[in-house]
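Fold sample X.
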Amino acid sequence: MRYLEVAGWKKNSCDDGPGIRSVLFLQGCSMNCPGCHNRDIQKRGEGSLMSIDEIISFVESRCHNKRITISGGEPLEQWEALEKLLISLKEKGFDICLYTGWDFRQIPEKVFKLVDYIKTGNFVMEKRNVDIHYVGSENQKMYHLTGDGVCELLDLRLSA
C-alpha cells in the first residue's frame, strides 16, 4: 500500500514528544479506548487518502526543524504504508516520534530501527495522570531509541 489515511496536521506542538514538533495524525483506530483524546479520528474512511510522496512533500514544506510525531488514531494499523513513510522520513534526516496504543511487545521489530522516540500503551481512564508529560495515563511509556539499538525508558513526570 502506498497510501495513508490522514486525519490532520498540527504545527509547533510541545505536547506530542520531546522538543517542538509537527504532528501528523493518521485516521482510524480499532482500540476504542474509553476517554480517548482523539475519538473523532477513530473511524476509518473519514480521513484523506494521501500517497507517501504527497505526505513527504507536505511534511518537508511545513516541518522545517525536521522533528515530527506520527499519531492517530492508531498509526500501526496502517503499517504497510507507514513503514514506507518512516523509511523516507528517516532517509531525509527527520527526528521521528511515533505514538501507538500498542503494547511494546506487539510492535513490529522494524519500527524500533525507524523511529527516535516511541510512546507505547493504550489510554486507560482509571490510570489517567496529568502530571506525566507526553502521555495520558500511567501505563503509557515513552522510549528514546538510539541508532546503536539502545532503548531508553524516559522519565516523564513533571517536576513540582
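Fold sample Y, listed below.
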Amino acid sequence: MNGLTSEQLLLRNLRDAGCDEESIQQYFQWQAEGREREQLRFLSAYRRKLLEQIHINQEKLDCLDYLLYTMERQKE
C-alpha cells in the first residue's frame, strides 16, 4: 500500500481529483461523524461538476476543430 495509511490515500485521491482543501476538510469531518450519505452526496455532485466541465471543454474543442477544418479547406 505504498506505506500510506488509508486516510493518506483518501486525502491524496481527493486532491488528485481536484477537490479544494475546504471541501476535503468537510469530507473528513463527515467521515469522523459517520455521515456517509453526505460524503456520497458530495462526491456525486463533484463528479457531475467535473463532467459538466468536460462537456463545456468538448464544445470548445469542437469549435476549434471546425475553425481548423475551414482554414485547411480554404488552402485547397
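Sample Y note: The chain has one domain: 6-75.
Also: The chain has a mean pLDDT of 96.
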